[in-house]
Fold each of these.
Amino acid sequence: MSEPQITLYRLQACPFCERVVRTLDELDLEYRSRYVEPMHSERNVVKRVSGARSVPAIVDRETGVTMSESANIVEYLNGTYGEGGA
Amino acid sequence: MVDFDVVSLPETDHVAEGDTAPDFTRPLVNDEYWEDRALADVVDGPTLLLFHPMDGAFQGTYLYNTVDDHGWSDDVDVLGVSISTPYAHKRLLADRGDGVRIFSDPGADVIEEYGLAHDIDGMTGITESRPAVFLLDADRTVEHAWVASEHPEFPDGEAIDDAVADLVD
C-alpha cells in the first residue's frame, strides 16, 4: 500500500479540521488522518511535528511543508495543488 | 480455586495455528494518536496479537500487567484488540502496556471474523471478545494460538514466553 504524502493531525469534530478535510477532498488529495486528544497537554506528537499543539496541522512529505492554522493550510493546499498551483 | 464449576464457553471455530491471521483495517491507537491501519501493513516481524474484553474490565488490566511483567514488547510487536473506543485505549495505555498499540473494533466485526465473539449476559447489544492470544510471524502465519474456553479464563504467560522464545530465537 502506498502511503499518502499528506498527514493530517486532527481532533474529532473540530470545525477547523473539517474545513481542511473539505479542501483536501475538493483537491482529490490522499491523506492519512491521525486523531489526537481534546486536551492540549495530551498533544505532544503535534507539538513535536509542528512546533505547536494546535490542530489542524498537516505534514506534506511531497513538499516538506509542515503547517498549522486552518486558513494557512487551506491557502497552502489551494496554492500548491489547486488550479494554477505549482 | 473455587469450589463450583466456572462457566464454559461453547466450542468456536476460531483462527488457529497454521492459519494466516485475517487482515483487517481499524483505528490503531498508540500513546499519542490513532489512525486507520491494516494489520497486514503493521505486521512486519514477530507479533503478539491479543484480543481482550473491553477496557476497564479487570481481564484487560491483568492482561497488560502481564505484558509489562514479561516484557514481551521488548522482543516482539504487541498489538491489542478490543471493542473499546480509541479514547478508552489511550487512557489504558497511559497506565500500562508500555510499547503496546491497540486496535478499536466497537462493532466486533473483526472479533467475529476471528471466531471470538462472546455475548455477555446482562449487557444487551454488546458483543464482546473472548480473551485470545495469537503469535504471528512476519507473514501473519499463526505460530501459537490460545482462545479462552471458560469465562473468565486468563492466558498462560509461561506458554506465551515459550512461544515467543521459539519464534524470535
Amino acid sequence: MIVLLSHYGWRRVFAAALAGSGALLLGIVLPMVIRPAQAERRSTNEDFVNYASPLELLFSPDGSRLYVLCQQSQQVRVLDASSFALIKNIAVGGVPRGIALSSKGDRLYVTNSWDDTVSAIDTGALDVVATWHVGAEPSGIVADPNAAHLFVANRVSDDVAVLNAQTGEEEKRLAGGRGTSYLTLAPDGGKIYATHIYPNPSSRRTGLENRTAPESEISVIDAKRATVMDRIPLHSIAGVFHLAFSRDGRLGVVVEYHPKNLVPLAHLEHGGAFAYTITLFGTMVGKPVEVPLDELDRYASQPFGVAISYDSSRMYITLGGSDAVLAIDVRRLLNFVNARPRPASGSYAADLSASSNYVIARIPVGHNPRGLALSADGRRLLVANRLDDTISVIDTNTLRVSATVELNRQEPVNVLRRGEQTFYSAHYSFQGQIGCSSCHIDSTFDGLTWDLEPDGFGVDIVDNRLLEDLRGTEPFKWNGGNPNIPTECGPRTEKYFWRSENYDDLTLSDLTVYVRTMRLRPNRWRLPNGELTAAQERGKAIFERSVDRFGKPITVENQCSYCHSGPKGTSQKSFDVGTRKATDESGLFDTPQLANVAMTAPYLHDGSARTMEEIWTIFNPADKHGRTNDLTKDELNDLVEYLRTR
Amino acid sequence: MNSISRAVMIAITLSALQPVGALAEQRKVAAGADFGDYIVTAAPIYKQLAELRGEERFPAGARLLLVHNGKSEPLVPEFAASVDADVSFDGLWVMFAGKKNAGDPWQIWEVNLQDRKVRSVVATKTDAVRPLYLPGGRLVWAQRTANGFELESTEDARRREAPALNPTAGPGITPLTYIRGNAFPTGVLRDGRIMFEAGFPFDAAATPEIYLVYADGSGVESYRCDHGRGRWGARQLASGDVVFTHGSELGRFSSPFAHESQIAAPAAQYAGSVAETVAGAWLLSTRQAGQSHYAINLWNPKPVSGAQIAKLVPVLAVTGVDLVDPVLVGTRARPNRHPSGLHPWNYANLLALDARISRDGTLRETPAEVRVEVQDANGRAAVAGKAPVEQDGSFYVRVPGDRPIRFSLLDKKGIVLRQERGWFWARGGEQRYCTGCHAGPERGSENRVPAVLMRSTTPTDLTDLKMILSPTRGGQ
C-alpha cells in the first residue's frame, strides 16, 4: 500500500495532490494516513517481515513514473511520480542493487547482486523480458546512449562487464577498482565513470602496505569503444560511492569515505576515525580536489547518493549514517576551491570548518537514506530511506521534507530491522561520526587495517574482518578476547569505538540478532553443481593432508584442517602461526573463519599479506602456518583455488 | 564584615525579594510567553566573574527564587543563602549550592520540588559550588582547594547512606581539573562533555574562556581556539549551538565554525547563562546602561523581520536586587554518558602527529626536541625531560598523569621555537593524540602513521620524579 504522508497535515496533502495530479488521482492516493515521519512502530510479532528496503530511485524520461528499487522485497515498484500511487510491483532477482534506463526509456535494467544476473524490464508492459548472467555481484549499471551496450559493475569480480544491450551477451570485461560498484554516464554520453567500495591493493610490495594510506580511483570508460581510457586517483580514500555531473558535464562529484585507519583510534573528536568527503573533478575545478562534508561537532556520516540540480546551483548528498541529506551551494563550493591556493595534497579533508563555506542545509530524513532523484522540474528531491521503507519528498525551494511516502505501512518494525537500523546508524557514536557500517560497508568489511587504541599506539594493528555467517565462529577479535557478539558490540564498542553512551540492552539484543543472522553471500568460486574443479580437488587434498610431499608426517597442529576445522573453517582457538610482528603484544591469534575468504584481502591478523599466496610465500618461512614450504607453485595455486571455494 | 552582621544584611535584603511595584505590569507583558516555572538567583550584590578571581560572587548573600505563575518565593527558605540551581533531567529535583547558616561554607544540596525536602549531597569543609547533574547518576561541581576551585565529580549521594565527606580526600571522588587556578562548570553538552570556564591560559586567569572536559577528566581542550575577549556563562541550546556572553554582547559557537559568531541582540549588559524555553526564546539576565541591577527578560533570538531584532520583554525585576542565572523547571534531554576508557596507570601517553602545525602558523623548521615541564607542588615549573621530534613533526611521550604539564618545542641548539601559553593536563591512564600544537579543534588528523610510531611504539618516558623535582633552568 502506498501512503502519502505529510508534515503539514491532511489539508496540504489534499491540496498538493489536487494541484499536482488532478482530482482523479485522489482516489488512487487514498486512503492517506498522517503521522510523524519518524514515528516508530515496534512489533510484538518477530516473524520474518519482507520489507521493501528502497535503495535506488529513478524517474522515467517523461517524469511520469518513479521506479523504486526495493532490495529486500526484491522488486521494482513502479509508482505514479505525482501521486506515488502504486502502478505495479515487478519481481526481480536476489538482492537487487543497481537500476538504469535505456536511453529511450523502453527498457529498465536491474542488477541482481546475489544472483549474478541482470533483469531487463519492458517499461511498456512492466514485465521482466530477459534475465542475463553477468559477473560476480553485479551492482551499478548504465546503458550507453546508442543502445549498443550495457555496462555492469561487478563488486566481487572487481570489473565492469560490457554486455550487448539487445542480447545480454557479455562481450568483454574491463578492470575496475576493488569492489567496483557504481557507474555513472557522463551527460554527453561519451564516458562512463566507475567507482569502487574497497581500496585497491598496493601494486608493489614494500613491506608497509598495511601501514600506508589507502588508494582508490575513478575508472573512466570510453562508452563507445568500451575501453578504460583514464583512472582518476583518489588518494587516502577507501569507500567510493555514487558520482554525479552537472548538466553541462563541467563539474563531476563523487562521494567517499576518508578513513583515519593509520592514526591510533584514541578518540573521535576532530575527525578521529573518518572524514566524509567529496572529490570534485572536471573543467570547473581543474585538478581533482577533495573537500569535507563534516563539521567540528557533527559529522556527515556515510555519504552515499549525490545529485546536482539541473541549473547547477545545488548539490544534494544522502548521509546513510546520519539520516540526513546535505544541501550544498555549488557557487560557494566552487569559490571555496578555486579562489585560494590549494593544499599540495589537493585535499581539504583535515579542515573541519571548510564545510561552513558551502553546506547550506542538513535536512533530516528517514533511516539510512541512500539513492535520490530529482524531479524533472527540479522542485522535488526524492530520497529512498532504505531502513524504514519510506521516500522523503524534499521541497528544493524550502529545503525541507514536504511529505513522506510510505511503501509498507502495514509492516511492523521487527527485531531484525531494528538491529539493522542500529548497525547502519552513526547516532550512537560521539558526535555521530561512525556506525558499524562505516567500517563494515554494506555489512561486509572495508579492506583496511586499524590501529585500535586499547592495546597502545602503533601496537597490535588489526585487519578488519567479514561479518557474514558469524554463528559458530566465536570468539571475536584477533586476540580472541571477546567471547560473543554482545561483548563485542556492547561494552567494548561503547568504550573504544563510539566513545559515547551505547545503546540500551534491548537495542544491543536487536543488533546482536541482526549481526548473527547475516547471511553468507554466494561463493562465486564453486561450480554451480557444488562439485570442485580438478585444481580445487587437488587443493582440498593438500588442505587435508597429513604427510608432506616427501612422505614425512605433518604434525596434527600443522595441518591446515586442524586449525581451520569444521564447516566454518575455524577451530575457534588461537594459535601462534609465526606471524607476530615487533608491534604485536602476543603471537597467539584467533583462527579466522574461511567463509568467502577469497574476497576478504588483505590477510593475516594485521593485513600484511596482500594475497592468499603471500600468506605462505612471504609470511610462512618456518612452516608454522601449516606445512607449505614443500609445495610447488602449482600446488600452492591448487591450495588457494580450494580455499576460494570455502 | 563579620558573619553576624552579614547574616543580618542578607536577611533584611532578602526579605524584600518579592516582586514589587511595576513588576505586575512586567509580568503581564510576558504573560503570552508560557515557559512555565523557573528559578533565579536573587542577590543584593552580584560581582560578575569574581569567582574566577577567587572572590565571592554574592558578597551580600543570595537566595534562589522559584517563580510560579509570575509569583516568586524562596526555593529553600530555611537556608541562609542559596545559589547555582540545576534542575534534574526529570524535572523533579533541584541541586544547588547553599549555606544553612550564613557562616557555613557553600555546600551542595538537593531539594525535591514536590515536597521541598532538602538533603545534603556533598558536605565539605570548604566551599563547593556550581553543581550540575551528569548522566549515569553522577554530578560535577567546583570545589575550593588549595589550588583554587577545581572540578570534582562523584556518584550522586542520593544512593549513599551518608553524604560524601571531604570529597577531595574521600573515596569515589574524581577530580576533573588539575591546574592551579579556578574552574567552574557551566553546563553539560549533549555529547557528555562538561563545559567549564576558567582563565585563558590556564593558571594565568587573564581572560575568561570556555573549556571542555570529559566526565572522567580526560580530553581537556578549549571549546574553540579563537581566543580573544572573555567568554563566560556558556550554555548549549537545543540546536546544539553554545551561547555565551562577553558581558556587553552575546556570542555563539556553532558546529560548522571554528570561530564564534556574534548574536545580534539588544544593547544591554548580560549577566551570564541563558535559559532556552521550549519555544526557543531565551530567558536572560540583563541590565540597561545606567541601571544598577540585573533583571530577568525574555528575548526571541529570531529576527522580527529582516535585520530587525526582537526587543527584550521584562519578566521579573526586584528593586535593589540582581536577578541572575535563570533556570527553567521541567524535563530536559539527558546528555550522553561518557564511557571512560582510562587505563589503570598513573601516567598518560601523548602522541603529537605533527607538532609543527599550529593556528599561530606552521613552523618552517622541524623542532629537534620537545621539552615537557611539570608544575611542582609549589607551582614552579620543573623539567620532566625531553624527547626527540621526528622529521614529520611527530613525538610520543609518557608524562605524569593528573598534573599540570606543558610542552616547548626546541631547535637543535635547545632554543625554544614555540611554547604553550598555559598548562594543561592528561589524566592518569589517558592515551591521546593531538594533531599539532594549538592546532584548534577544526584541524583533523592526516591519515598517516606518524614517524615516531614507525621507529618505536614505546613512548619516551618523562615520568621520572627525580627529574621533575629539578626546577627549570634558564629561560623558557
